[in-house]
Amino acid sequence: xxxxxxxxxxxxxxxxxxxxxxxxxxxxxxxxxxxxxxxxxxxxxxxxxxxxxxxxxxxxxxxxxxxxxxxxxxxxxxxxxxxxxxxxxxxxxxxxxxxxxxxxxxxxxxxxxxxxxxxxxxxxxxxxxxxxxxxxxxxxxxxxxxxxxxxxxxxxxxxxxxxxxxxxxxxxxxxxxxxxxxxxxxxxxxxxxxxxxxxxxxxxxxxxxxxxxxxxxxxxxxxxxxxxxxxx
Length: 232
Known about the structure:
Blueprint: H1 15-19, E1 21-26, E2 29-38, E3 41-46, E4 59-66, E5 69-76, E6 78-79, E7 88-91, E8 115-120, E9 140-152, E10 155-161, E11 172-176, E12 183-200, E13 205-219, H2 221-229
Antiparallel strand pairs: 1-2, 1-4, 2-3, 3-7, 4-5, 6-7, 8-9, 8-11, 9-10, 10-13, 11-12, 12-13
């Protein structure tokens, strides 16, 4: 658990939330994940695209960065019946997170225009702080505004206004509930919408992609649906 006096533990987010974000590696693909407890079991929630060509209930080897090295865990991957949903749930046998507060999983109780945060490990950056975070690196924290909801590749997604870079995939987004002002696990970061631009030297033109600043975020409610679909 991060010391409450630690400079990196922003008072706008609880230290327990920050401590639940993990840096993960799957077959050479690096990303972020969030450890949550549902019922009696712990799960790592992350983005499905980090796992290449996996199907529901496939065996997977997932590594978490801890104490300066990668620790491997063997498990299975749980996926949504709608293949467009970029969310993966991995059962995780551990008790090291049990002492941490476990925010509710929901994307309700927020409105368009609310400000929140998303967390993760972009660009393989590992901030200092592992000595007060159980040997795990402390994630970077960025702001985002809830901009809207739309259907994307046959799945509903939330659009966040913020700047997401490579490595945030699978990281959690948190917003405060209007009902009680408590932080809630709102969604899972998938990526961003690219924006196509043109550059010219008056002779030739080149097309290139740029980060639009619009983040693709899948509602955390998909986590509950995945577990129900797998009868868990």
